[in-house]
Amino acid sequence: KMKQKSLMSFFGKK
Amino acid sequence: MLEAKLSEAALLKRLLDAVKELVSDANFECNEEGIQLQAMDNSHVALVSVKLYASGFKRYRCDRPLPLGVNLGSLTKVLKCAKDDDICTLKAGDDADILSLTYEAKSAYADRIAEYEMKLMDIDADQLGIPDTDYDASVTMPSSEFLRIVRDLSLLGESVRIEVSKEGIRFVSDGEAANGNILIKQNAEASGKKKGSIEMNSAVTLTFSLKYLVNFSKSSSLSKKVQLMMSNDVPLLVSYAFNQGHIRYYLAPKIGD
Fold it and tell me: Measured between CA atoms, how close is B79 to chain A, in angstroms?
């Protein structure tokens, strides 16, 4: 099973 | 205030088509460099980033940074009222309450000028800082080809595995009832004219949700080429460049448990 990652775990808030 | 005159409304129509299913509201950040939009979809899986350069407009004036909070559904409706080849002028005052759009057309019998106004809104959205990334693989291909591949594979399954190797780039979909894979070889050239390129520092394998890629492919009307930038375990960058700017999408990968 694959799990969808969130973009927030790669890109930080400005 | 903002005053921005585009030589053809078609550009905005296509951009809206390429964004509106991903995000419903977004800030158009206007400044002297041009107009920018950055927004994530509700599930925080995909991000779209649009840039229109000031130089891409017939006339462009923006005295100070101005965020225009736009409901994309409303803007789509107002843009439907424009003909593709109408000259389109966007105007907003410093209070950023109203966006006015003027469509000018010269027909055989008279000049037509149509004016529309739409309400703007306050949008409180987080802006993400996207780090500069040296990607391990960069693939440029005809945007129509990419559209075809993701649309075809989306019929079979929810996900696509993208593998970039010395062999080329391979798109693999393992559906419950059927599977398929499409390989584009490194040396794909037609009649001496280079259609695309594959550059790779190291092999990359990533898995993505196809519904987003199908969505991104709506940008095919904006550019004949698409560039895919990939590194293992980082978001995919899908980039379409056109004369007046670019549209870029970032998509978080699916990762095995």
Answer: 31
Would an 8 Å CB–CB cutoff place B257 in contact with chain A? yes
Strand residue runs (E) in B72-203 = 87-92, 98-106, 111-119, 128-129, 137-142, 159-165, 168-174, 179-185, 189-190, 193-194, 197-200
Task: Give pLDDT tens digits for B106-135.
Answer: 777 789 999 999 999 999 887 889 989 999
Contact between residue A6 and residue B252 where contact means Cβ atoms under 8 Å apart: yes
Contact B45 A4 (CB under 8 A): yes
B68-114: pLDDT as tens digits:
999 999 999 999 999 999 999 999 999 989 999 999 997 777 899 99
B153 versus B125: the higher-pLDDT residue is B153
Residue A9: closest C-alpha in chain B:
B252
Distances (CA, A) of B34 to B26, B47, B67, B239: 16, 20, 12, 18
Helix B72-80, helix B9-19: angle, nearest 10: 140
Q: Which of B67, B36, A13, A1 is nearest to B44 (CA)?
A: A13
Q: Do A3 and B257 touch (CB under 8 A)?
A: yes
- Least confident span in B101-115, B134-148, B179-193: B179-193
Q: Does B47 touch chain A (CB under 8 A)?
A: yes
